[in-house]
Amino acid sequence: MIRIISLDMDGTLVKSRFVDKVWMEGMPMLYAEKTGIDFSAAKEYVVGEYMKIGSDHLEWYDLLYWINKFGLDIGKHEILQMYEDEIETYPEVQEVLDRLSENYDLVVTSNAAREFMDIELDGLSDYFRETFSATSDFREVKKSPLIYGAVCAHMNARPFEVLHIGDHYHYDYESPLEAGLDALFLDRKGERSGLEVVGDLREAVELIDGFM
Ligand SMILES: [Mg+2]
C-alpha cells in the first residue's frame, strides 16, 4: 500500500531552463566581467573547468565551489536570484500535486544542491512534507539505492510504501526499484514504452489511481 510519493525535481517538476541559465550563462558572464575576456571565451573556459571535475564529484553541484574557483564577487543566492524569473514548472504540476496530496504524503528527492531546491520549489513548498538533496543532505552525487533507503528511513516508511517518479531511467527508476520502492519512469520525450512509463505527471496520477 503506497502512502508516500517521492518526486524528482529537475525535469520532473521544474523545467531545466533555470539551472541551464545559472551554469551556462550566469557563471560565464560573471567570469567574463571579472577578467575582461568576451563571453564566448569565458564560457569555453568555464565549461571546460566544469568538465574537468565532472558530475561524479560533489563540487560539480556546488555553486560556492565554482564562485570561489573563478574568484567571483557574488554570493550563491545572488547568482540564483539573477535567473529567478526563469523558474518554470511543467504545466500539469499544480493540478497533479493538488490531486496527489489529497491521498499521499509528498516528498522531493533530487540530486540538486539545497540552494537550488529551495529556490526552485519556493512556490510549491506547501505540498511537500520533506525535501531531500542527495548532494547536500547525503553527500552522494547520484541517487543510489542507498539514498532511497535513507529517504524511507527518514519518513518512517517501509520501501514498499513509497513510490518514486522521475525522468532519469537509471537514477529515478532502476535505483528506487533496487531499493525496494515502487517507481514510475517519466519519459517526457516519449522514447520508451512500458507499464511503468508515463509521458507526463497526469498520466502518472491516472496510473496511481488505477492500481493503488
Ligand atoms: Mg530529473
Task: Explain what the structure shows.
This protein has helices spanning 17-35, 39-53, 63-69, 76-82, 93-103, 114-120, 134-138, 145-154, 169-178, 201-211; strands at residues 4-7, 105-110, 128-133, 162-166, 182-186, 197-198. With 212 residues, the protein is α/β, with parallel strands linked by helices. The protein has two domains: 4-15 and 88-211, 3-Layer(aba) Sandwich (Rossmann fold), CATH 3.40.50.1000; 17-85. The protein has a six-stranded parallel beta sheet with strand order 3-2-1-4-5-6, sandwiched between helices. Helix 1 crosses helix 2 (39-53). The longest helix is centred in the N-terminal third of the chain and has 19 residues, at 17-35. The chain is elongated. The mean pLDDT is 96. Magnesium ion is lined by residues 8, 10-12, 166-168.
Structure ligands: magnesium ion
User: How much helical structure, as a percent, in the residues?
Assistant: 40-55%
Query: Helix-strand pattern, N to C?
Result: EHHHHHEHEHHEHEEH
Looking at the structure, the CATH topology of the largest domain is Rossmann fold
Strand order of the largest sheet: 3-2-1-4-5-6
The pLDDT mean sits at 96
Largest β-sheet summary? 6 strands, parallel
Helix- and strand-based class?
Answer: alpha/beta
Span between N and C termini? 7 Å
How much strand content do the residues show? 5-15%
**Overall number of strands:** 6
CATH class category of the largest domain: Alpha Beta
Architecture (CATH level 2) name of the largest domain: 3-Layer(aba) Sandwich
